[in-house]
Amino acid sequence: MRIRKFVRDSRAATAIEYGLIAALIAVAAMQSVGRNLKNTFNKVASNMQ
User: How far apart are CA 43 and CA 24, in angstroms?
Assistant: First the structure.
């Protein structure tokens, strides 16, 4: 019963939407950081050779 009330509540829908937006932003940020780290390690590795 609690889940049904939560799903019907418009505040819950808004909270879910904000959660999804935050997750999307986090994924995008992690991909950016990952690319930068990869580039940094590649530069270090090429300078060591």
Answer: 29
Q: What is the pTM of this model?
A: 0.56
Q: What are phi and psi of 14, to 5 degrees?
A: -65, -40
pLDDT in tens, 3-16: 676 666 667 778 88
Q: Report the alpha-carbon distance of residue 44 to residue 7 in Å, rounded.
A: 51
- Given a contact cutoff of 8 angstroms between Cβ atoms, the answer to whether 14 and 6 are in contact is no
CA distances from 26 to 15, 23, 29, 31, 48 (A): 16, 5, 5, 9, 33
Q: For residue 20, how many C-alpha atoms fall within 13 Å in the half-sphere facing its CB? A: 6
